[in-house]
DNA sequence: GATTAGGCTTCG
């Protein structure tokens, strides 16, 4: 190959059909050669001494024809756009020329084709492609000159390249339909790239320039990066090779020899060419390229592009700055951006944020957990999601839970949302902050964040690069937030007992806290914690997972926490103490036993004289089974005339004891202030309000059963008694630093793993419960040093006369096993 | 190898 100098004539190089020359084409071409204009190119014209010059837009793979001849095809765009609607033409290479050319040609090269045949094109189906094609081969004496990128220079090369770019830019008021043009404009409106229903990404961009004429461009590309990187209204764009379609279009068809061609392609083609909405529009055509610049006046002029090669001159810098200045005063660039702290309900706004977590909700909705370093001034909703479905750093999400908002994106945005990487910075356009409040609590409202389906108003999501100035600013702010936050964590951790936390990461600290939780959830583990202040502001009823400390509890005397509860009338009552029972027993002992009711079919009766107690007689009725007495430990007895001391003694021996007294006709239960059944240390009471007592004879139905189990519930049932249940009722004052609330614990056995029915009669169980409470809430301890409790609570309304009150109840929670 | 969308807020 010849050295790349300019002082070489074409004739000297004629022996080499494909030449690569590093220089400007005009300086090398002999004067006798005439440049042809596509406008005047026709089949049959004499093409001797003619050459065509264009830019390589596209080339196809080298192939072999049926006869074995090498074949290569490129698309050349006329270097100086003649404003005709045909600006490009196919060049077909045959034989050695095809091979040689394929080896050296690059997209963007300028090519001069001399010595060609003109033939009718069978593949020119684009509106801007010429109906003819140029055929070149060695046999035809063709010469190809390739000028490597004389018009395409990078900014760094600008200084050393004396060749000025030849691009011309059409002002928007000078646009004609059906042309391929280069444009500058300020972005007045845009839709961030979204996945179209076809095969490409689509982005709609409306630009405007100093002529105040706007043009809406519909841009397609299979490669997301090839679409303009517009981040906000007011950005400046430069489009190369954009095709216009519009009103003036049909006028230009005449005289170009295209009318016939279109007719030949039928009505469908006509339909396609017809303008949309009688408006000029821009559309991507082959070779479309764009540069995007920040629209801020005075900001560095750094083009955003995926292309490594692009022209860029000082003159263009001037154009951009002029457009910036014009746009600043003529374009409303105040986008509806907002920080979370400034979010108002019922608003559409653009949010710049970082993605912390994501989760698929269903086919048409997707959850994004984001933050922007500020705290939403409204209570924002939390979308329930299985923890296992949530992608992201759960510790970080938990840590930033008060600064994080949940956004649901719908329909067409789901696919894009799925592809987002956790940690990336996003701008979410036209995000809807929707106020929601539930029913009777209109004053307690919260904000939901939706990115509705569709692309109206530019609704969509765009990933911002890390070097974006807004992202840089956001990151710096977030770093300061994290630092402040972690200092708070440090100060908390340094108070921890062993003092070894100080150098641990937040994650270790968090894990340690997790371990230190003295309670565990028995369900709902997948739910996120909700801050107490959020709960206090939220509608009722709802359920939450919380993490809080037990500041104090009531009653402090733990025996007072055990109550009797009727699940039928929801009443709670104190557990009568032994003295009450003793009095009732003494009272009933006054009534003499009735010997007439002794020894029935289903029980045997035995009478004793109470030692040293005068007239008092003790009667024990042994309930039989299958007409036989059972072993004492399986036996139900009914007793008359006993004292508390005696009945306790008996209850150690017999499985079940029913205290009774005699009437004239039968035996009957004592007053329901007394237990209707004693089983070991457990005394069973019935609800005075709900019980409808039946006769003692009803017990016989149980006695005849094959294996009478003497279950208290069954005994109660046949006797018409509504049994009361032992429950722990306590009030926990919980505090998580954001707020405090009183939550009731209403527990039969689960929370403490101690049956409420047994605790009053067991010193061991009482000690155990005291120990547990001293673990949950050690007395004389500062809040910071208290252990964490993981709890599940529900809110509910309680009507007290005219007043309605919100209450909270702990459930599905138990004391951790290692605490017990 | 054409098609996609064609600005103008919401089911959730």
- N-to-C span: 89 Å
Q: Radius of gyration, Cα only, in angstroms?
A: 45 Å
The chain-level mean pLDDT equals 82
- Annotation field: number of helices: 17
Please give the share of residues in helix.
10-25%
**Which stretches of 5+ consecutive residues score pLDDT under 50?**
1-14, 150-164, 248-273, 490-515
Sheet/helix structural class: alpha+beta
* Shape category: elongated
Most strands sheet: 10 strands, mixed
Q: Work out the strand percent.
A: 25-35%
DSSP summary, beta strand count: 39
Output the keywords:
10-stranded mixed sheet; 820 residues; single chain; alpha+beta; 17 helices; DNA-binding; 5-stranded mixed beta barrel
Notes on the protein architecture:
With 820 residues, the protein is α+β, with helices and mostly antiparallel strands. The chain is 19% helix and 32% strand. The protein contains 17 helices and 39 strands. The strands form 7 sheets. Strands 1, 2, 3, 4, 5, 6, 7, 8, 9 and 10 form a 10-stranded mixed sheet that branches. Strands 11-13-14-16-15 form a 5-stranded mixed β-barrel. Strands 17-18-20-22-21 form a 5-stranded mixed β-barrel. It is elongated, with a radius of gyration of 45 Å. The protein binds one DNA strand of 12 nucleotides through residues 125, 189-191, 195-202, 204-206, 216, 218, 220, 276-277, 279, 281, 283, 348, 361, 364-365, 408, 410-411, 430, 432, 434, 448, 450, 452-459.
Map the helices and strands.
Layout: E1 18-21, E2 34-35, E3 50-59, E4 63-64, E5 70-78, E6 88-94, H1 96-104, E7 110-114, E8 117-120, E9 129-136, E10 143-147, H2 155-158, E11 180-190, E12 194-195, E13 201-208, E14 214-221, E15 236-245, H3 249-253, H4 259-264, H5 266-273, E16 281-293, H6 314-330, E17 347-362, E18 365-371, E19 391-392, H7 394-399, E20 405-410, H8 412-419, E21 425-437, E22 445-451, E23 460-464, H9 469-493, H10 506-516, E24 519-521, H11 532-537, E25 543-554, E26 562-565, E27 572-574, H12 578-589, E28 603-609, E29 617-623, E30 636-640, H13 644-653, E31 656-662, E32 667-669, E33 677-679, E34 682-684, H14 700-703, H15 712-718, E35 725-735, E36 740-747, H16 756-759, H17 763-776, E37 788-800, E38 803-811, E39 813-815
Parallel strand pairs: 1-10, 2-3, 6-9, 14-16, 20-22, 30-31, 36-38
Antiparallel strand pairs: 3-5, 3-7, 4-5, 5-6, 7-10, 8-9, 11-13, 11-15, 12-13, 13-14, 15-16, 17-18, 17-19, 17-21, 18-20, 21-22, 21-23, 24-39, 25-35, 25-37, 26-27, 26-35, 28-29, 29-30, 31-32, 33-34, 35-36, 37-38
The structure holds one DNA strand of 12 nucleotides.
């Amino acid at each position: 190959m010849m050295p790349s100098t300019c002082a070489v004539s074409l004739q000297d190089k004629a022996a080499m059909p494909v030449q690569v020359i590093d220089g400007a084409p005009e300086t090398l071409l002999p004067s006798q050669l005439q440049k042809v204009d596509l406008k005047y190119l026709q089949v049959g014209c004499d093409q001797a001494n003619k050459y065509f010059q264009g830019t390589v837009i596209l080339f196809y793979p080298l192939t072999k024809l049926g006869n074995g001849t090498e074949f290569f095809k490129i698309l050349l765009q006329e270097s100086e756009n003649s404003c005709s609607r045909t600006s490009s033409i196919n060049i077909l290479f045959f034989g050695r020329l095809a091979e040689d050319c394929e080896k050296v040609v690059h997209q963007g090269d300028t090519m001069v084709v001399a010595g060609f045949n003109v033939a009718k094109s069978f593949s020119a189906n684009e509106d801007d492609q010429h109906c003819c094609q140029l055929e070149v081969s060695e046999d035809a004496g063709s010469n190809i000159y390739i000028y490597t990128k004389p018009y395409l220079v990078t900014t760094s090369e600008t200084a050393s390249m004396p060749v000025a770019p030849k691009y011309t830019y059409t002002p928007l008021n000078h646009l004609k339909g059906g042309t391929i043009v280069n444009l500058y404009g300020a972005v007045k409106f845009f839709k961030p790239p979204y996945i179209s229903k076809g095969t490409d990404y689509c982005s709609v961009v409306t630009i405007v320039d100093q002529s105040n004429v706007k043009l809406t461009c519909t841009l397609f590309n299979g490669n997301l990066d090839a679409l303009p990187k517009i981040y906000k209204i007011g950005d400046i764009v430069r489009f190369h090779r954009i095709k216009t379609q519009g009103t003036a279009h049909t006028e230009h068809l005449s005289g170009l020899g295209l009318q016939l061609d279109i007719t030949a392609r039928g009505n469908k083609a006509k339909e396609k060419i017809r303008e949309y909405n009688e408006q000029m529009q821009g559309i991507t055509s082959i070779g479309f390229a764009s540069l995007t610049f920040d629209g801020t006046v005075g900001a560095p002029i750094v083009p955003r592009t995926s292309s490594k090669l692009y022209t860029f001159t000082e003159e263009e810098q001037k154009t951009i700055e002029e457009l910036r200045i014009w746009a600043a005063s003529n374009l409303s660039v105040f986008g509806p951006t907002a920080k979370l702290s400034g979010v108002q309900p019922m608003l559409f706004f653009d949010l710049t944020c970082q993605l912390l977590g994501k989760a698929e909700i269903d086919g048409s909705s997707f959850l994004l957990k984001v933050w922007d370093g500020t705290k939403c001034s409204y209570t924002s909703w939390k979308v329930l999601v299985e923890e296992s479905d949530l992608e992201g750093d759960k510790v970080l999400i938990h840590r930033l839970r008060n600064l994080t908002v949940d956004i649901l994106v719908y329909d067409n945005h789901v696919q894009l949302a799925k592809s987002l990487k956790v940690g990336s910075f996003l701008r979410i356009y036209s995000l809807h902050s929707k106020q929601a409040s539930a029913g009777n609590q209109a004053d307690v409202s919260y904000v939901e964040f939706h990115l509705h389906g569709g692309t109206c108003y530019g609704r969509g999501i765009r990933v911002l690069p890390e070097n974006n100035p807004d992202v840089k600013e956001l990151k710096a702010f977030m770093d300061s937030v994290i630092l402040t936050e972690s200092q708070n964590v440090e100060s908390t951790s340094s108070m921890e007992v062993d003092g070894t936390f100080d150098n641990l990461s937040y994650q270790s600290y968090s894990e340690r806290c997790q371990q230190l939780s003295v309670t565990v959830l028995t369900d709902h583990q997948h739910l996120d914690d909700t801050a107490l202040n959020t709960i206090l502001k939220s509608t009722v009823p709802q359920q939450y997972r919380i993490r809080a400390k037990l500041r104090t509890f009531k009653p402090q005397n733990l025996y007072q926490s055990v109550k009797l509860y009727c699940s039928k009338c929801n009443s709670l009552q104190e557990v009568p103490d032994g003295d009450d029972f003793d009095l009732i027993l003494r009272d009933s002992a006054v009534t003499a036993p009735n010997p007439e009711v002794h020894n029935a079919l289903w029980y045997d009766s035995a009478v004793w004289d109470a030692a040293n107690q005068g007239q008092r007689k003790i009667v024990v009725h042994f309930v039989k089974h299958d007409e036989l007495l059972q072993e004492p430990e399986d036996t139900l007895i009914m007793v008359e005339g006993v004292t508390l001391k005696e009945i306790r003694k008996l209850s150690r021996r017999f499985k079940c004891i029913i205290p009774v007294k005699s009437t004239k006709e039968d035996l009957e239960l004592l007053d329901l202030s007394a237990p209707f059944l004693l089983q070991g240390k457990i005394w069973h009471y019935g609800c005075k309000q709900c019980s409808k007592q039946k006769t003692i004879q009803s017990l016989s139905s149980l006695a005849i059963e094959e294996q009478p189990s003497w279950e208290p519930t069954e005994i109660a049932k046949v006797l018409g008694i509504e049994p009361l249940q032992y429950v722990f009722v306590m009030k926990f004052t919980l505090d998580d630093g954001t707020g405090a609330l009183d939550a009731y614990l209403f527990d039969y056995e689960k929370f403490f793993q101690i049956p409420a029915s047994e605790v009053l009669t067991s010193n061991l169980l009482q000690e155990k419960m005291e120990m547990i409470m001293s673990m949950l809430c050690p007395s004389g301890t500062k809040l910071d040093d208290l252990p964490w409790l993981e709890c599940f609570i529900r809110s509910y309304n309680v009507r007290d006369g005219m007043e309605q009150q919100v209450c909270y109840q702990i459930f599905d929670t138990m004391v951790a096993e290692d605490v017990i």
